[in-house]
Amino acid sequence: MRTAACLTMIYYSLCLPRGLVAWQSGSAAALRGSRWAARAWAPPRLLMSATEEATSAKPLPTNEDSERLLRIRHTSAHVMAMAVQRLFPEVQVTIGPWIDNGFYYDFKNPDEGGFTESDLKAIKKEMDRIIKKKLPLIREEVSRDEARTRIEALNEPFKLEILDSIETEPITIYHIGDEWWDLCAGPHVEHTGELPPKGIQLQSMAGAYWRGDESRDMLTRIYGTAWEDAAQLSQYKAMLEEAKKRDHRVLGKKLDLFSIQDEAGGGLVFWHPKGSTVRRVIEDFWKDTHLASGYELLYTPHVANLELWKTSGHFDFYREGMFDQMDVEGDEYQIKPMNCPFHCLVYKDSLRSYRDLPIRWAELGTVYRYERSGTLHGLMRVRGFTQDDAHIFCLPNQLSDEIVGVLDLTEQILSKFGFNNYEVMLSTRPEKSVGSDEIWDAATAALQDGLQRKGWEYKVDEGGGAFYGPKIDIKIRDAIGRTWQCSTIQCDFNLPERFDLEYVASEGDRQRPIMVHRAIFGSVERFFGILVESTAGDLPLWCAPVQMRLLPVTDEARAYCESIVEKARRAGLRVELDKGADRLAKQIRNAEQSRVPLMAVVGAQEMESGTLSIRARKGGDMGVIAIGDVLDRIAIAVEQGSDFQAPDGAAPEYEE
Fold this sequence. Notes:
Blueprint: H1 3-15, H2 18-30, H3 37-40, H4 50-55, H5 67-87, E1 92-93, E2 98-99, E3 102-108, H6 117-132, E4 137-142, H7 144-154, H8 157-165, E5 171-176, E6 180-183, E7 200-209, E8 218-226, H9 230-245, H10 248-254, E9 258-260, E10 269-271, H11 273-292, E11 296-297, E12 303-305, H12 306-312, H13 314-317, E13 326-328, E14 331-335, H14 340-348, E15 352-353, E16 359-368, E17 384-394, H15 399-416, E18 422-427, H16 437-454, E19 459-461, E20 471-477, E21 483-492, H17 495-498, E22 503-504, E23 510-511, E24 514-519, H18 524-535, E25 548-552, H19 557-570, E26 575-577, H20 584-593, E27 598-602, H21 604-609, E28 611-616, E29 620-626, H22 627-640
Parallel strand pairs: 11-16, 15-22, 18-19, 25-26, 25-27
Antiparallel strand pairs: 1-3, 2-3, 3-8, 4-5, 5-6, 7-8, 9-10, 12-14, 13-14, 16-17, 17-24, 18-20, 20-21, 21-24, 22-23, 27-28, 28-29
């Protein structure tokens, strides 16, 4: 039997349950003589995979899609707090919001032992009893003094602090029946019977400081998830199970991509050779795409005098997220948390004319932000990360075209990685903002016009914009249905004013440019983590750290393989040789576990004919193909961002 046939037999014997291996071997023998035998044969379908189970149904609803779901989650938080205080009257309540996949509530438990897992079960049973009673949710408006009197009667000091932080009046309270109430603005369901008990599950507990302040009380946070029905909860749980398998922290270690070194400190990423290769490929694609779209690239320092951050306003508004300053010859310097002030300085370095605009500057700029250790999470939340930052300086009448250009570029880049489903939000002027009504209206209209010209559906978050301008936020949906905030486009009327940025208008007077902040990945680290989880480590061929691994059957084949590796290197392809002394079955298993897209078995016949027996992780047996053709087809697949395609007639032949 030829080498490719051996490859098929070994591969499927690794994948099938033991009882099916003998059956497969006999079937392959019966298929001998058929030119297409190895390609046509496929293992029987046994069970739906976790991935298919998690993604086979329509996407789960979100709080933005379904107000009913939002109300269910908010009321579930209140019902949980009521159940806790029924079971543990000495416990004090604090806040309990809805969140993306459910809800939580923070409690002050005087019991040093805190809550236990068995307590969670008891709390859920009590919630079910409250739901069954169909108690009404009643909204009441009271004066601030009346609210204070009621809270003091309950001995709830945390709620007094919440009351003091509420700036509007009257104060609103929501009651559950006549037994329990909380300060709340709503919304809620009409009665507890509208909650689906089989669509609610308490998940976990965690510690949380009151108001996020480490000097304040340590509270116990109970998380729950809530859905419109039991089927949605089941789908969500399947997604969670699949997400565990795809955890980028686990895959990052397994595939030797990156690490977080405790000796160096938390939230600081060490890129290993394979991870560095992927990052380099991603960044090169990002740079090439930007240059082709009319951007110029910048490189700026990692530190600057503190006065720069005072000018930009970051020191006033974001000081808690910045590292401490360092003394440099009597001046205070700040490691940068943002790139935008640097781009403003470059703009201001020379006088600009209206003929120079628009200016598009992009930078892969590494920034550093202080994050508490408890919030750090793999690549998703770190202290040092690289923003794919860009700033556009343009005239008011250019803004709409620039927004369309950014949206086109965003789609071009994200779709390259397989992200084609987006949720788009347009956020408008908040109560506290800078800039005139005229410029806010014009910028908001330009963002709307850009989205409409692009043909993208979007939702409007009234009052959700930044204080310095309206914005567009784009979430991507991954392979198992989760959404991730990545891309953002923000108009800024603040920094041009603070840095006194100007251009000479056609009439000869000086005017302010409109500044647009935009990022597509958000940060390279976080996007890398999202990509690893979405692909389960099976990175696309074009950006995989190793595109093909050569598996020599004999020691004599090694020199032949090394010559192929060198030829591939000269062609800009990433091909490696399995350098171990393992048998072929182990080599195949190792390549599979390393998520290598292509593997090529090399034996005496391949050496004699100048060919490779190719198997693709996504396409199965590709047949016996000439070396030059294999490398050419990898190069084509890389250029197109597609999977490897075998030539017609490349199926292996079997000898009688």
